[in-house]
Amino acid sequence: PMAAILSLAMMLEYSLSMHEEAASIKNAVDRCISEGILTEDLTDGESYGTNEVGDAVAEFVGAGALEAKSQ
Fold first, then answer.
1. Are 29 and 6 contacting, i.e. CB atoms less than 8 angstroms apart?
2. What share of residues in the chain are helix, strand, coil (percent, to 5)?
3. What is the reported pLDDT for 64?
4. What gap in Å lies between CA 12 and CA 1, rounded to an integer?
């Protein structure tokens, strides 16, 4: 799901000029990668299902929005 999610981020950034929203999504994907929340095609170690990865990205986007709102 990472490629599809990042495609959405690109659409937001380049087609809709929603730069902050795109950055939030890209940061959430980066966080999943750094925390090892990956589907089996991206890792030789522990893997997660597509729903779990998508849920993690959504959670991290939400967490990032809360952090930005509190600043």
1. yes
2. 75, 0, 25
3. 78
4. 17
For tokens 């937001």, name the residue. Answer: 12
Gap between the Cα atoms of 34 and 42, Å rounded: 12
- Return d(Cα 8, Cα 13) in angstroms, integer: 9
Q: How far apart are CA 12 and CA 10, in angstroms?
A: 5
Tens digits of residue pLDDT in 53-67: 999 999 999 987 667
| Among the listed residues 60, 42, 30, the one whose alpha carbon sits nearest the alpha carbon of residue 50 | 42
**What tokens appear for 25 in the block?**
């999504």
Whether 24 contacts 61, CB under 8 Å? yes
pTM for this entry: 0.90
